Amino acid sequence: LQLVESGGGLVQPGGSLRLSCEASGFTLEYYSIGWFREAPGKGREGVSYISNDDGTTYYKDSVEGRFTISRDNAKNTAYLQMNSLKAEDTAVYYCAAGLGHYTLGDDLVDYNYWGRGTQVTVSS
Fold it and tell me: What is the pLDDT of residue 28?
């Protein structure tokens, strides 16, 4: 049972990346998904969330309008599309899956499963 993030990398300011979060060993469709990030010297923070039932989404204020969370149940995968990236978006990004309902104030350890993260670096 695991989640694996991918899609991170080095991108210039203003660029885009799409992060993937693939589940194995369980059906992601039944889980709420949270994306988190942790930058050097900063605490981990919730970035985005999508619920497991009605698809309710939440976004951190600083990414609202630039990031989009989605899921493809057929591929057992969730995504975080990140556009108009800024240097301050540089961090390790993690996804988490949980059977409950959560807020951006919850931490990934409050979920049932989480991945090891993927590095996103925004720099010219």
Answer: 94
